[in-house]
Amino acid sequence: MRLWLWTIAAMTLGVLVVGGITRLTHSGLSMVDWDPILGVIPPLDESQWRQAFERYQQFPEFRKLRPGMTLGEFKFIFFWEYLHRLLARGIGVVFIVPFAYFQARGWLDRRLRRRFLGLFALGGMQGVMGWLMVASGLVDRPSVSHYRLAAHLALALVIFSAAVWFARDLRPGPRAAAVEAAARRRMMRGLAAVGVLLGAQIVWGAFVAGLKAGFFANTFPLMAGSLVPPGLLTLEPAARNFLENPVAVQWTHRVLGTVLALAVVALFWAVRRAEVDRASRRFAAALLGLVATQYLLGVLTLVNAVPVALGVLHQATAGVLVAVWVSWVHHGVGARGG
């Protein structure tokens, strides 16, 4: 079961990576229909490819942005969206077959069954959310809703986190080493604060992606020569800027990233001084190293105007960061007493 859950987590991270490539190559609107069953079969001959291309030509992305696209170019963007959907459906298969086997063998008690069925339900919700996201770009504008993009990413990371948590719950051996109660409370409060900042940073990262805000002000640390850039508050009411104005959204992402990095540094030093176990210290060091790497990747992605390789690596590192944070929280929950 642990191997099964880690496989689901790894595949979910893989889908996130392919989703990043799909977004950065502007491939996400190439498949304009949602067919969970027959959609597994791609066009198989030239006639079917032309039918798929003609279907794509009826929607805003082709008419407004790509009127000169060739069939060969369409096949390229179709490949990435098809691969993204195929991998997502593959997770469903990887879930269902072992789950049915475990159930038939009588290995699942009520608690495990409820957990795993909940995980499966989240996967179904993710499929629906993915289509709702795509559908938002097939109406009157050739781009998806950045709110739906953020929800799609957040739900994927919830599924990923749940798989990691459940896998760690099934880990054999003694429970975590005891940690002095006061030190444990401080550590868990610090982890909670970092988790809130990490979640907010990921959501605003999705806003940046959905609004293509990474193509504005490709300098660091200043934006348009200023810490507070011009055009920050052009929408009314003012709060709307931080959700829909590309300049303000990118600025928020920068500020949240800096605050998150400082919070992780503070947590690292607090753990180093506290009476905690060796595993907690290792988690602190890993989180600090990943946040530093992620910060650097974010800067490089920005100043290089979001190349595909750096953008995808930035997104994948966010997933690894979430895995380390979830694993540390799981460890902290088990480190009682002392």
Please write out the topology.
Blueprint: H1 2-24, H2 46-56, H3 60-65, H4 71-105, H5 110-135, H6 146-169, H7 181-210, H8 241-244, H9 246-273, H10 278-303, H11 308-334
Helix pairs in contact: 1-4, 1-6, 1-11, 4-5, 5-6, 6-7, 6-11, 7-9, 7-11, 9-10, 10-11
Describe the fold and architecture:
The chain is built from 11 helices and no strands. It has helices at 2-24, 46-56, 60-65, 71-105, 110-135, 146-169, 181-210, 241-244, 246-273, 278-303, 308-334. With 338 residues, the protein is mostly helical. It has 2 domains: 1-173, no CATH class; 176-338, no CATH class. The two termini are 31 Å apart.
Any key phrases for this structure?
71% helix, 338 residues
Summarize the model shown:
The chain has 338 residues and is mainly alpha-helical.
What value does the Rg take, in angstroms? 22 Å
Q: What percent of the residues sit in helical stretches (DSSP H or I)?
A: over 70%
Order of helices and strands: HHHHHHHHHHH
Domains, number:
2
Mean pLDDT: 93
Number of strands: 0
- Please report the number of helical segments: 11
**SS content category:** mainly alpha
The backbone outline, from C-alpha atoms, is flat
User: What distance separates the N and C termini?
Assistant: 31 Å
Q: Beta fraction of the residues?
A: under 5%
**Largest sheet, described in full?**
none
Q: Which regions are unreliable across 5 or more consecutive residues at pLDDT < 50?
A: none
